[in-house]
Design goal:
It is a single chain. The chain is mainly alpha-helical. The protein has a domain of 52 residues: Orthogonal Bundle (Arc Repressor Mutant, subunit A), CATH 1.10.10. Helix content is 50%, strand content 8%. It is built from five helices and four strands. The chain has a two-stranded antiparallel ribbon. Strands 3-4 form a two-stranded antiparallel sheet. Helix 1 packs antiparallel against helix 2 and helix 2 packs across helix 4. The longest helix is centred in the last third of the chain and has 14 residues. The radius of gyration is 22 Å and the shape is elongated. The chain starts with 5 loop residues before the first strand and ends with a helix. InterPro entries: Homeodomain-like_sf, WH-like_DNA-bd_sf. This is Paired domain-containing protein.
Amino acid sequence: SYDLLVLQGLRCEGGAGVLNLVLLLSLSHILVTGSSTWHLMAMNSEDLKKQIADVHKDGLGCKKISKTLTLSCSTLAKTIQQFNRTGSTQNRPCHGRPKKLSARAQHHIQRLALGNRCM
């Protein structure tokens, strides 16, 4: 019924984005039903970023998504901008100096250091 699809003050009037959001959230078992509201449980940040991007692709705006997921608009905007720029929600690899030691050499140095702890 109409009253069942009220999601923290956001009414669903046949909008595909809200229906997909409700479907996504209920299928991945992250919703716990309360009295008449929906409460989100903690979930993986990568999964959350993917769901934000999917719901945004369906046409929901930043304010409606932030009310639904109880996140700040700036967090959502940053995730959406990253998705629009790169086409992915994954973090980019960090910059920095590449490692000079192989994993084997590093393990050997660790074993030498552990063996000489008494000195």
